[in-house]
Amino acid sequence: MKLDHTDKQIIEILQTNSNITNAELASRLGASASGTLERVKRLENSGVIKKYVAIVDAEKIGRGILAVVSVSLTAHKKNAYDSFITQIEKLEEVLECFHTTGEEDFFLKIAVKDISELQQFLIKKLTVINGVDRVKTNLVLSTVKSDTKINF
Fold it and tell me: Domain 5-45 has what CATH class?
């Protein structure tokens, strides 16, 4: 989808504040409310805007232990990847899953309440997935940068 200057402005504004009213968005663009709403709907329907979320402080809700876990599979075949992905999508501890190049096949961002829960996740949920060969876990000491905004 080709984005014009106004589309990019809409995206920039909504990435900073998705709770803005359509009237306020239109005012900031210097455009009509109906035209702005139409553009936003087009961006949503085309998948450019995937969803709107509240970003929660994991520590404040008892999920302050973050880990980055790399996973290598035993087989590098489509059905092995598909099976792994199907299982990972069911695990609530997994915030993000990245299929990557390199030595490891996947990187997972995990949020749990404590080290004991992380241990249980690794032993009882992750390593029992058929096809998992190696798992390496790194604890996050601090988050230096965390942003959801993608700039043009």
Answer: mainly alpha
